Each structure stands twice: as C-alpha cells, then as structure tokens.
Amino acid sequence: ARLSAPQEWGEISSATSSSSAVWVASSGLGLSQVDLPASAPLETKCCAASALALGSSLDSAQEVSAMLWVEQWQKLFVGTPLAFYTYSFAGSPLSQVSVSHEWVGAIVDTAPLDMAYEPSQDALWVVEAQALHKRTADGRLWRIGQRQGTPTANLASVAVGQGFVWVGSEFGVARVAADHSAAQQVGVSGDTASHGRYTAKDPWQWS
Asked: How far apart are CA 52 and CA 91, in angstroms?
C-alpha cells in the first residue's frame, strides 16, 4: 500500500538497500520499502514508500532486530523476536512475490542480531545470542552452536571478509573459514580436555 505524505518515521531500528530500493524498519511506519527511480536525480530520490506487513502479530517495527538485502538472491531477510523472515522479490521496480519464515525457538534460538552475505560460498550468515547460522541459496539453514565449534555463547555480531566469517561476542572476536562445514564436531573417546571437540582441529581462532 502506498503511504501518504508526510509521514513520521519515528525511531529507525534497522535499514538495508539495493540499487533501486531502501527498506526501513521504524516505529512510525513499520517495515517500509522506498523505491528509488533510476531516472530521477539523486537529490530527488525521496520517492514513494510502500508498507510491507510482517503479520498481524507484529505491529511495531521496533521488534525488527536485524535486516539485510541479498542482491544475488533478490531476497530481503528480516529478524524479529518472533521469526526469521525471507521476503522474495522480482521485477523492476522490485515487487514482493512471496514471504516465508522460520520461527524463533526452533532452529533459530533467539532473535537474529546481525547478518552478512559471503559471496565466495554464496551463503548468508546470521548470528543470534546462542549460535551462528549459515543460510544457503537453496533455503537450507545450518545451525553452528557450541557443539559445532562456536567458541562461546553471548554472540552479538557477524562480518565477512577475505574468505573468513568473523563473530563478535561479549568475550572477544573469533573467526572461522567461510567454507567451514556445519557438521557437528565430536572428540575422540576419552578426550576430556577438548570438551567433546578435536582440540588440534578446532577451526575457530580467537583474535
């Protein structure tokens, strides 16, 4: 639905963009898409906003905890305390064609806090307090928690670069190779020092 002007954004909690649109989560307008016509001068690209509904149970955009547009997939990912949403788009200007979700409390333990797309592996990395998640182009969501090598809980942020995935937590920053397998790592029999993981082959490194 096209929003009438003027409108107050209120408090903006998250934003992301493509070459032709900006998505903004705000307390005043909820989750909104602002189209940026390619033919308009830069100073006039303050165009029409359209509302994207997250669902009747979510009436406050302040609940949006993380958001990221992935150009390669033409998808918008939105994290809230309730669910991890995937909005699929097509056309020009971009138009929403479908939406799906993964409930928080299933594979995703808590509200997604940060996201980063890693192009060499064509994967989206999503971090929440208890685990790191790898979302592949085919829609599969892999959970990488402490039993899969994540160094600690209380995770807060994620970034990618030069073939690595960097994870920030209350206790520091750690990195893992972007092509790291999400398969569970288990220790050898009697290896109590590694707490169930191969110490010598632990892929995580603290920085």
From this structure: 16
Burial of 125 (0-12, 13-18, 19+ CB in 10 A): buried
DSSP state of 202: -
Angle at Cα 174 formed by Cα 71 and Cα 156, nearest 5°? Answer: 65
Q: Which amino acid is at 140?
A: R
Print burial letters for 3-37: b (CB count within 10 Å at least 16), e (below 16): eeeeeeeeeebbebebeebbbbbbeebbbbbbbbe
- pTM for the model stands at 0.81
Name the 3-class secondary structure at 72. coil
Block residue for tokens 């992301």: 16
Question: What confidence tens digit (pLDDT) does each residue in 103-116 have?
Answer: 999 899 999 999 99
Is there a contact between 205 and 199 (Cβ–Cβ < 8 Å)?
no
Q: Let me know the angle formed at the C-alpha of 50 by 45 and 51, rounded to the nearest 5 degrees.
A: 140
